[in-house]
Specification:
about 65% helix, mainly alpha, about 200 residues, 10 helices
Amino acid sequence: MPRSSGRQGELRETEGLLRERAEAAELRALFGEDDQFEDKIDEYVVVEYGYLKTTRYSFRSQANRQRERRWETLLYDNNTLNDTEFVAHFCLNRVSFFELITLFKEDAHVHSSGARLMCGGAELHLMGLLKWLSWSRNDNTCLKVGIFLGICSGSVSNYPARAAGAVLELEAVVIARPDARERTATTRHVQLAFGS
């Protein structure tokens, strides 16, 4: 049988205290005793019990709490990561980054479907890909990238893979291959300009 959490223990203690306080209040009412101080304590216990019921993560260590969305502060907050540091980390300035995001923001590779849930959308996927490509040697570990972006280190390698798939699908849209007529016109232009 698994050990109960600290929150469950606190809830049990508070429920027991509520029962005892309710019995004491019934006895006071039965004997006609009116004690305002005891009533205030009863109200405090009810409020504390309600607080415990609404807090899901109380009494958990900081390591078990859901991580903050650190990647959003890195992307949108200039105080956390200025433009020079952003270029140093991602090899791309913010303006170019957002222009690149507009190209594959609606791609199926970077959005959740019913079968797979993922956070971050296109921004986090592209940040993961650029961070993965910009780091070298032994610095490029899933743990370090996960800590830097504030995501789970187990899913770090999925983000660059999905972003790379989305970028590769853009090849047909962004890169236009010249047809035969354009190639001959370009060849003539080069021959006239440089002589052959």
